[in-house]
Amino acid sequence: MLHFLTRVKIGLLVFMQIIHLSDTHFGNHQPAFDLQKLRDAMNSLSDLFEKPDTYLVVSGDITFQGNSNGYIQARRFFDDTWLVNQRARNRFLACPGNHDICANSFQNFDTFLYGIRRNHDTDFSNRPHGLVKFDNIAFLMVNSASHLNHKYGLIDFQSLKTYLEIEKNYLDSVEHRIAVVHHHLIGFQENDTSTIRNALPFIALLDKFEFHLILHGHQHSQISLQLGKSKMAIFSARSLNYRTSSLVNGINILSYEKNAWNCDPRVLSADNSMINGPSLSKIG
Asked: Is the CB of residue 241 less than 8 Å from the CB of residue 31?
């Protein structure tokens, strides 16, 4: 049985929480874990899902190697977890990754996302970014694979700059501004060539518009940084269900507490017991 080991918080007032998934890679023929056990693990967080100030964010690579069938698996997974019991569709957010390029387009991704959200706030077939607007929080969803190259990330910078300038009045009106992108912004391996190529101007632009948080995935690694005048917190997420020899599978639970974003990482590791299966545990 998959389960989460939860942290007990005493004396902390939590205003907002984000369940951050990335690199789910549905459609992979060699997944690390059984999908039903993953569903059970996700549903162990149902108390968080029920809260109106909890958001589920997936930072790309919904499917695996452009496999359109992966979106069918993904839709069933989120139907049975996030959407069960009529939870809010609009608090599910996702951006594409390089594995979401199907037949040289993002049409399959858009169809998947519309099936959950039931709106066209972020259709990536026709534009590389979009804002998902709430009364006090703005999510900027950015497609770092819009250039249709699987090997590296790239931001459509001029288009994004113009877009943010147009939306400046709205951005100034909300307390929280969060950017979500797939590719990582800073390389951390010697042979890593897949970072966002124009990450520096992208970071500077987000800093100018006083974004407070950047979420990304891609490298299946846990990263925590703080950058810029606005002291943007940057968190990356592990993959959710990817076969590998190391502990790269898991999720992050981010909480806004005492005027700061804090990350509670949970890791999926294989249990030796054939009865219990793998477990999703807090580390650090």
From this structure: yes
Q: Domain containing 262 — which CATH number?
A: 3.60.21.10
Neighbours of 54 (CB within 10 A): 21
pLDDT at position 275 over 50: no
Number of Cβ within 10 Å of residue 102's Cβ equals: 19
d(CA 251, CA 255): 13
Q: Is residue 26 scored above 90 in pLDDT? A: yes
Q: Which amino acid is at 43?
A: N
Cα angle, residue 85 at apex, residues 179 and 57 outer, rounded to 5°: 10
> Please, what sign has the CA dihedral across residues 221, 158, 57, 253?
positive
Q: How far is CA 11 from the centre of its chain?
A: 28
Domain membership flag for residue 44: yes
Residue 7 has pLDDT above 90, yes or no: no
Q: Is 131:138 a contact under the CB 8 Å cutoff?
A: yes
Amino acid symbol at 33: F
Q: What percent of the chain has pLDDT over 70?
A: 87
Within a domain: 223: yes
